[in-house]
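TASK: fixed-backbone design
INPUT:
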C-alpha cells in the first residue's frame, strides 16, 4: 500500500525515470501466463501489487523453472523497477523472483472463494487469506479490543485470565463436568463459577 500511495498518482514517465530498485514479498494470489511473460499478483497485510515477469528479464532458463514450481499461495520475494501498464496498473518489472515459502495446500478458487459457510468457519485461515471483507472484519475487531484493553490499562485496571478447563475440580459444590484432553492424555474438569 505504501507503493500505491507514493506512485499511483504519478504518470508512467515519472515512474520509469525513477531508478530505485523495489523489493517486495507476499503471497501469490493470481498468476496469468502469456507465453514468455506472466503477470503475478502478490498480497501482503498492506495490500496487493502486480508483478511482470518475463523470460528476457530473468537469467537464462530461470523463467521456465520458476513457472513449473510456482503455485497459488506460495510466498515469493521480488526485485525490480516500477512501471504502469496500459490500463494504468502499478506494476513491478522483475529481474529477480524467488520462492521464499512453498504453500503445502492450494488456495480456494479465486473467483468463487469459500462458498460453504461451514468450511469458512472450519478453515478460517483460508477465509482470511482469500476474503478481504473477512480480513477487514478481523482487523477492526482487533483494533477495537486493543483500544478497550488500553483504555482499561490507562485507568489502572489489570487483565486477569481464568482457564476454562482445570486439572483439579473446584468452585461451587456442584458435580463437576469431566472431559478428556486427548493431546495431553489427561482427565480435566470444566471450571465452575463459584457464585
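OUTPUT:
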Amino acid at each position: 500500500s505504501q507503493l500505491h500511495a507514493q506512485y499511483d498518482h504519478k504518470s508512467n514517465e515519472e515512474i520509469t525515470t525513477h531508478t530505485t530498485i523495489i523489493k517486495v514479498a507476499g503471497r501469490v494470489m493470481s498468476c496469468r501466463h502469456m507465453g514468455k511473460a506472466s503477470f503475478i499478483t502478490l498480497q501482503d497485510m498492506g495490500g496487493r501489487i502486480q508483478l511482470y515477469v518475463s523470460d528476457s528479464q530473468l537469467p537464462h532458463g530461470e523463467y521456465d523453472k520458476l513457472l513449473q514450481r510456482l503455485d497459488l499461495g506460495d510466498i515469493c520475494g521480488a526485485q525490480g523497477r516500477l512501471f504502469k501498464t496500459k490500463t494504468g496498473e502499478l506494476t513491478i518489472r522483475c529481474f529477480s523472483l524467488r520462492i521464499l515459502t512453498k504453500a503445502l495446500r492450494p488456495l480456494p478458487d479465486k473467483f468463487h472463494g469459500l462458498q460453504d459457510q461451514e468450511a469458512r468457519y472450519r478453515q478460517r485461515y483460508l477465509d482470511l487469506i482469500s476474503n478481504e471483507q473477512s480480513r477487514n472484519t478481523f482487523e477492526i475487531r482487533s483494533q477495537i479490543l486493543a483500544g478497550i484493553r488500553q483504555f482499561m490499562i490507562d485507568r489502572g485496571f489489570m487483565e486477569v485470565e481464568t482457564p476454562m478447563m482445570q486439572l483439579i475440580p473446584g468452585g461451587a459444590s456442584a458435580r463437576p463436568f469431566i472431559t478428556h484432553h486427548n493431546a495431553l492424555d489427561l482427565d480435566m474438569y470444566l471450571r465452575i463459577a463459584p457464585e
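COMMENT: Strands lie at 22-34, 37-44, 47-54, 75-84, 90-101, 165-166, 178-181, 186-190.
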